[in-house]
Design brief:
about 160 residues; alpha/beta; Ribose 5-phosphate Isomerase B, Chain: A; five-stranded parallel sheet; about 15% strand
Length: about 160
C-alpha cells in the first residue's frame, strides 16, 4: 500500500513518529512535507495528498495538523476524497470499513504519538466492506459530490 502523507507546522513534532510507524508497517510513503517547523498552509499540502490519491499514485492518505479539523475540511473539498478526523481506533477502522474513508486526519495537539500509532494501524489494516448496504451508501456520497459540482457549474 502507498500512503500520501503530510503535516503542517502544527503537526511537525509528530511527523517522525508517524513516518516511523509507516516504515514499520512496510508501507511506501509519499512525503509531501512539511520538512521544517516553519509555518505552512495546510490547504497546499492537502491538495498534494489528495492529488496523489485521485491519480492512483497513492492508495490512501494520512494528514496531521493541530486538531485534524483543518486538513479534513480541506481534503473533503476534493471529489473522491473521504477524509475524517479520527482520534480513536474504532473510528479509524470503521471509517474505512463502512464509509470508504481514504484520508485519515489527526490532531497532533490533541493526541500523542503512542495513540496515533494504534489509530494508524487500524486505518491501514481496515478494508472497505463488501456489504451491499455500505456500497449503496457510499454511492450516494458520490452522487452528492456530482450534484454539488453541477450546482456550482450552473452558477458560474
Amino acid at each position: 500500500m502507498k500512503i500520501a502523507f503530510a503535516s503542517d507546522h502544527s503537526g511537525y513534532h509528530m511527523r517522525a513518529d508517524v513516518l516511523s510507524v509507516l516504515e514499520k508497517l512496510e508501507l511506501e510513503v509519499l512525503d509531501f512535507g512539511c520538512k521544517t517547523p516553519d509555518r505552512v498552509d495546510f490547504p497546499d499540502l492537502t491538495r498534494k495528498v489528495c492529488k496523489a490519491i485521485r491519480s492512483g499514485t497513492a492508495d490512501r492518505g494520512i494528514m496531521l495538523c493541530g486538531t485534524g479539523i483543518g486538513v479534513a475540511i480541506a481534503a473533503n473539498k476534493v471529489p473522491g476524497i473521504r477524509a475524517s478526523v479520527c482520534h480513536d481506533v474504532h473510528s479509524a477502522h470503521q471509517g474505512v470499513e463502512h464509509d470508504d474513508m481514504n484520508v485519515l486526519c489527526m490532531g497532533a495537539k490533541i493526541i500523542g504519538a503512542w495513540h496515533a500509532k494504534d489509530i494508524i494501524e487500524a486505518f491501514i489494516k481496515a478494508e472497505f466492506s463488501n456489504d451491499e448496504y455500505f456500497r449503496q451508501r457510499t454511492a450516494k456520497l458520490t452522487i452528492m459530490e456530482i450534484d454539488a459540482a453541477r450546482e456550482l457549474s450552473n452558477k458560474i
